[in-house]
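User: For my dataset I need records formatted as: sequence, then structure tokens, nothing else. Please produce one.
Assistant:
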Amino acid sequence: MRMANMPPLMMKPAMPVSLSPSSLPQARERDAVSLREFHINAQAVFVHEDTEGLSAAAAQRVAELAAQAIAARGVFHIALAGGATPRRCYEKLRRLPVDWEHVQVYFGDERCLPAGDAGRNDRMARETLLEHIAIPPDNIHAIPAELGAREAAARYAAMLENAAPLDLVLLGMGEDGHIASLFPGNPATDSKALAVPVFNAPKPPPERVSLGMVTLNAARQRIFLVAGAGKRDALGQMLLGKSLPAACIAAAEWHLDRAALSG
């Protein structure tokens, strides 16, 4: 069943996770029409049967992009996403062959909580991925959000000056269409800074740090992981033309599960 009052989307079926990067197709002309109707500047949209399939495909894609970047430039700069959907992806990614010594890990956003707090994104990433792989500690660049949003954002922006453009940013999407910690209507979403302080976030904690929209859009690759029925409304709003933060990411690769599309 389609979401109410929405024209049909012609999306690509999910690709097998064994495909090479070159075999992941760009949008064909007939797909491009439907993607424009979706009001996102999408490079491609892949629909998976469930979260397991989505996570496996995304993990494989990360491993492939890492291999490409390391072969071309000797290093792979990736920004990890927080949230429930990326968690399963990281659990699968740690089992794939990646040259982690040549990977530099950043974070798309962080909550202003004490270092090591269970609510921090970097702790989730460590527990699901980073503690299980052979990556040098100096290759992990946590956001020092325990210093407060303004100071942490300034320090992270200074560090990003030497790392940008990132090779890949992984993005989840909230039920309100937010990405990282860039929420609809929040002034941080319009900032041109590489990393931005976020105040008065609509969900706790109210203070956060996020990569800026300019940093996200400057990345060589942008991949969305969107799963669950709770995301239908935001997708529907974008389909109808609302400029949510997720719709402001250019030429992204979207991986959705069927639950996010229909009931």
